[in-house]
Protein 1
Amino acid sequence: MTDFLQNCIDGVMFGSGYALLALGFTLVFGVMKRLNLSFGPSIMLGAYAGTWVYLNFSQNALLIVLVTVITTVAVGIYVERLCFWAVRRDAAIASMVSSFAIWMQLEEVAMHLLPERTYPFPTFFTSTVIDIGPFFVRSEHISMFLLTLVLLALLHLFLFRTRPGLALRAVSDNPLASTYMGINSSNIFFLAFAVVSVLGGLAGFLILSADSQVTPFFGLWATFKGLIAMMLGGMGSLTGAILGGLLLGVVEANAFWYGGPLIRDISAYLLLFIMLIVRPGGLVGQRIVTQQQAAYERV
Amino acid sequence: MLAVSNLTVNYGEVQAVDSISIKVKAGELVSITGANGAGKSSMLNAIAGICAVASGKIVFAGEDITGLRAHQIVKKGIVQVPEGRQLFATLTVRENLLAGRYSNSGFLLDKVIPDSLVQRFPALGERLDLLGSSLSGGQAQMLALARGLMNHPEVLLLDEPTLGLAPIAVKEVFDLIAELRDQGLTILVVEQNVRQALAISDYAYVLESGRIVMQGKGGELLNNSRLVESYLGAARAI
Ligand SMILES: Nc1ncnc2c1ncn2[C@@H]1O[C@H](COP(=O)(O)OP(=O)(O)OP(=O)(O)O)[C@@H](O)[C@H]1O
Ligand SMILES: [Mg+2]
């Protein structure tokens, strides 16, 4: 039992990182009803830029965070212009496929920037183990978890207390009505990508910093974890993304403890498989789907 | 205030609006009637910058606004309350209203809804923090109207504001429209409830297949309402 609870604590800590990635996917999906597959690789490239600065120029933590986030945002905007803005509104599949093509391109760029397989990623969290009763937690995980909570709070403030945040939610809900309100939806698409890239860049930094290394596979890894967590929670739902991320973290941590790394990786797919059969809309999605259907019948 | 001349709107091969000219003077209430598919919504949408203008000219307050984008037109003070209400079902009533004020709000949302609006729409005032989807049909229409007023428009375009409402609610909407006009708002309303619309209109147009087939002062057309209704009926019979 203690083991299980310990795993759950670890899972929640790590799952908070998944939650951030899932939020990135779900925000873009909610606003545009399209998937951006190159979200993970954009973060990977941002992290590579950060590492590159770290290896060649400076060890200043703030600078490296900035470089990571700014590069991720720049790449995010590049992807938006190329795969979403330039592609017709009704061609969702074309956007998804071209975002996959860009993925390959981004990996190529990363390989040219830093050709070896693995690079150290700067760790700014001091690593100690903190005892809480029978449990212990690593301090870098606590830092990551707390920073994630801060990010979630900021995102919430942005979405619910600011004008662009309201516009983002309005466009997700009803794009046509938003146009009547004088909301310029192509600006909002752009904004969604920018916000999501900031979130992704920070998430990437936190996750890699706790891991203290980066490889080109981080792009694939981040896209998979983010997509799975999003689908577990329910596509397009913000609460769902957070719950899905945490659930994925907890399940993986337990699978790893009881079964090893291979079982951990399989457990993620198995979990998704079961969820899609039992609750195809995800944890929160089902409710939203029925709620919206009821809503549109009445409105 | 608003002058549309020789406006044409096409959807591919379909010509929805065919060289229409209308005028709305400041402070007037002008109504447009016509059968389903006559091109009424297309005309409003062209004015609001939602659908493309094929040819013709739209002048608002002395300024040519033809071809401006929807958000630019909202900023100029023309707000449309669209057909079918188009509420935000997953946002609260308050947020729906705030979205109506989008083009005039600061970076941080001011969540206060003006008292005057709450007094005018008491049913909404009681439900500010419920979801848009939880309203009844009549309340939903009131929210759509209230949302349109949030931006303090100079011209309000209303597309079938009484569609699907019970007779009492229809009367409520017409009373509100007349009251808004009496307070100086310029209104262009598309309506199928011919008599009620004509009774409060300063001027009215009847559309058929994208063209104007009748026009005149509200009272004049009301005396001729048989003929007006025949235009609606004729197309309905087809
Ligand atoms: N998006 C569209 N694409 C193609 N044709 C359209 C589109 N919207 C409207 N039309 C066509 O244009 C014509 C006018 O439509 P419009 O919606 O303007 O009519 P309306 O007078 O508002 O009718 P209703 O009373 O049913 O609302 C119709 O023949 C319709 O089929
Ligand atoms: Mg119409």
Protein 2
Amino acid sequence: MRDKTDYIIIEFSKAVFFFGVVVLSFIALGFYSFLTLEHEGHWLTGMNNQVVWGLPHVFAIFLIIAASGILNIASISSVFNIKIYKPLGRLSALLAICLLTGGLMVLVLDLGRPDRLIVAMTTFNFKSIFAWNIFLYSGFMAVIALYLWMMFEARYNKFVGKVGTFAFIWRITLTTGTGSIFAFLVAKEAYGALAAPLFIALSLLMGTAIFYSILYWMDKGLDVPLGSEIIARFRRLLIYFIFTVFYITILSHLTSLYVTKNHDFEFFLLFSDNIYTLLFWVCQIGIGTILPLFILYNKKLSISPLGILLASLLVIFGGFTMLYIIIISGQAYPLDLFPGYTENSSFYDGAIASYTPSIYEIMLGLGGVGISAAIYIFAIMILDFTPKNLDDEHTLYSNNKEKIKTE
Amino acid sequence: MKKYEIKLDRRDFLKSSTMLGVSTIAPGVFFQQLAHGRDLDEPASSKIRWGMLINTNQCTDECDACVTACNEEHGIEDFGRPTTDTQWIRKLTLTSETTEESINVPMMCQHCENPPCVDVCPTGASFIRADGIVLVNKHTCIGCRYCMMSCPYKARSFVHENLENQLPHAPRGKGCVESCNLCVHKIDNGENNTACAEACQKDGHQAILFGDLNDVESDISKQLKKYESKEVRSDLGLNTAVRYRGI
Ligand code: SF4
Ligand code: SF4
């Protein structure tokens, strides 16, 4: 079916200018960090031989799974045919490309040998899930590009559903692949089989929360009015996904507790005196789950655009912390090479590894966010990605004329 | 299952390590005079499987001869940053939770027959030679550290620093991952012993024995037959080439 939404090309404005300044400074920081690390070596980061993946990986995986999740909005409209989301389809696909590029950028720039990217793109070990992910990511880009083309060309609009379904399957596979990076580590107690479903749920939640934050910005900064119907829908999506993530989190800890050899790790994570326990209960559960739910169910806040924004930002914070906990705590917790013995060595055997992200890692991560945002702002200024109006009248009726008539 | 899946021939590896040596250590100088144990064209043989037997009963508290020898042999420097400094071999002190007795265990890459590090490496830089030695190809390692995540023995180190004064036979590189290579250069020029084992023998402890696990006549095979020995984390089924007595 044809898309009857009006789209606009964004013109230069004060809001765009400020956005641009922030974005460019992020990119500059990221670039500076990259050059420094490339020159000096990774000892400048907080990462070490115990915690080998740090904050850059948290940023990268966050952006990659958010990319998959943000495409969900387009999927809902073209695969599940819920028309109110139709005007958001183009943006959804664009944002997926932006976030994926940003995430991959961080991943690549953090490599010990980023100059060998070409080796990674040409020499594959097909046993490695990492190598498969390279295919999944580049394929995802291609699929979205096709998807966008179908959306932009009026005469191809009829194929949007089919390509959308394909993109939908692709992105679920992609998130599963990303989660599986952790599922395949034989010796680490921390990473169970539930990593993949957890990553899928988290991706939906992150995508929704980020998308809403952007819609809010469009309303305030780009004068694209946001109607109460869309807000209400995003509120509901947020609630569903918060519960799903919460449910799988509980499930994965319970299944892990069921396995005797994982008791110590679970105890370490959930009930001891360390940073991860604190992050888990305070940041992930308290600030990232309960507080947003409170807002989303609060009579006043739940209908206020600002309230939903607040909930979205808290959810993003919670999701980021969750990835931090998953990625770092699993490495910080020592391997048990000799059960029944306490281990001690100059290489920190038997000790809980310490990890404090350095400023370079933060800058590198922000650089990735900057890249994502830069592509977005650039794209909306040259192509008509942005719907002209998202108030109730436009979203409810523009693509729903047939429905209204029959009702 | 096939015994060794990836067979890189020794000449390729030597060629690449020599090239790296040339490009990173001393431009203009060629290191062609690698001592010849076997003919250079002859690839590593799958008839051999190099391994070590470590007798923890013989390993004493104060001694760190193996660690020092390894560092010297491969030019591993100490930058005074213990969390990021490279360690190919380390000494673990184990204290029994029941008897409170303690034992010393030298620990390094176990040269697994089914190495997780090789499985996960996206570029195939981590590979296992026909003779069972697990190595990292310094030309294709992109420094992603996935192998470090996957190694059950924490055997690998990432090179966090700029390296200077590298040794011609042991080219290393910032931004790559490395681990014990069973002194592959010594094997390839026919010395058939490792620096750690030599140092330990020299100090009179005889705690480390190196040899061919496939050769029934070798000392190591005889000892393995005679005494009870263990694989660390044998539950993982990796069939390691480094075995321990006394744990
Ligand atoms: S001990 Fe670790 S580095 Fe060595 S082969 Fe096994 S998995 Fe690979
Ligand atoms: S760090 Fe190097 S050797 Fe290790 S998995 Fe990555 S590319 Fe392979």
